Amino acid sequence: METILKITNLHKKYRKVHAVNNVSVEIKKGNVYGILGPNGSGKSTTLGIVLNVVNKTSGEFEWFDGTYSTHDALKKVGAIIERPNFYPYMTAEDNLKLVCKIKNIPYTKVFEKLELVGLLDRKDSKFKTFSLGMKQRLAIASALLNDPEILILDEPTNGLDPQGIRQIRDLIKVIANQGTTILLASHLLDEVEKVCSHVIVIRNGVTLYQGTVDGMVASEGFFELESENLAQLESALQQLPQIEKIEKDENKLLVYLKSHLEPGELNTLLFKQNITLTHLVKRKNSLEEQFLELTKH
Ligand code: ADP
Ligand code: MG
After folding, report:
1. Which atom of ligand 1 is nearest to the CA of 38?
2. Which residues are within 8 A (CB) of 116 and not within 5 positions of it... i.e. 6 or more apart?
3. Which of 70, 252, 264, 296 is the most exposed place for a label (fewest CB within 10 A)?
4. Which option is the CATH number for 222-295: 1.10.10, 1.10.150, 3.30.70, 3.40.50?
């Protein structure tokens, strides 16, 4: 798989604050990456460095396997790292045409991208009449005019109402499905869980996890079990090699697994020992629970 961006041992220090602390990340073509972390964890700083608007303290980053200078590589990158800003009294179409003129892109792209973000029917409206969600979608259209390899978004749904949030998230998925690699920063877990295939969790500039979103969620999971005789159930469970630990939760047992065990298999094993379950549910931790586990100190 082609590498779009490789960051190696990146550091950024602002006087006392170690904003980015030894971050190494590889962004591969075709995936949707989320940098996830609470406010102040170094997400925007990291994006700023790779976009050449913030100076790094040390470490390296390399675009497209180093085949281009950073200056040329950034021509193949679409990024929105600030609030969308266009000429308020110009129409959506004219604003995008101006971007085309500056970047030497054919005007036909304006209509293609307005259509993509659902603003073609509003092409003649002045920018100042747009809602924040529409402004954000126009900014995405603008960033896509030159068909970049990768789209970078910093907190793309901040400040939007639920409908606006939904539209942006759906749009990101459409853009990803067309083959554009995406890197977004977000402090919202459910955003990353809904939109991204891969996640980099950072806190205080330090990477806590990176890998697939599924991988972060996929522990072997746990069972919730109930039975008339919990003591008997517990001693039977203690004999099973698949089980990591058992916790009591009121009249339930929470049974954490260290290796795979199907609910049917467990039920059969227990039934053979004359234990009848009155409640059997297999669960997995959500990304949120995993995240809280990772970031608690
Ligand atoms: P995030 O985007 O995850 O919210 P930032 O990258 O904006 O985090 O900030 C990371 C840390 O660096 C924070 O502690 C922030 O206060 C600090 N920081 C960011 N920009 C500057 C700056 N220009 N000068 C001093 N400190 C900064
Ligand atoms: Mg930020």
Report:
1. 3
2. 141, 144, 171, 174, 175
3. 296
4. 3.30.70
CB of 37 shorter than 6 A to ligand 1: yes
Q: Which atom of ligand 1 is nearest to the CA of 205?
A: 10
- Where b means 16+ CB within 10 Å and e means fewer, 252-270 reads bbebebeeebeeeebbebb
From the CB of 186, is ligand 1 less than 6 Å away? no
**Domain parsing of the chain, residue ranges:** 3-217, 222-295
Determine whether the shortest distance from the Cβ of 95 to ligand 1 is under 6 A: no
Note if the pTM is more than 0.90: no
Domains 3-217 and 222-295 share a fold: no
* Cα–Cα distance measured from residue 162 to residue 196, given in angstroms and rounded to the nearest whole number: 19
Q: What is the pLDDT, as a whole number, of residue 115?
A: 97
Predicted pLDDT at 217: 64
Q: Residue 249's pLDDT band (boundaries 50, 70, 90)?
A: confident
Task: Give the Å distance between the CA of 43 and the centre of ligand 1.
Answer: 8
Segment 194-218 mean pLDDT: 87
- What CATH architecture applies to the domain 3-217? 3-Layer(aba) Sandwich (3.40)
Separation of alpha carbons 1 and 236, rounded Å: 48
The CB of 43 under 6 Å from ligand 1? The reply is: yes
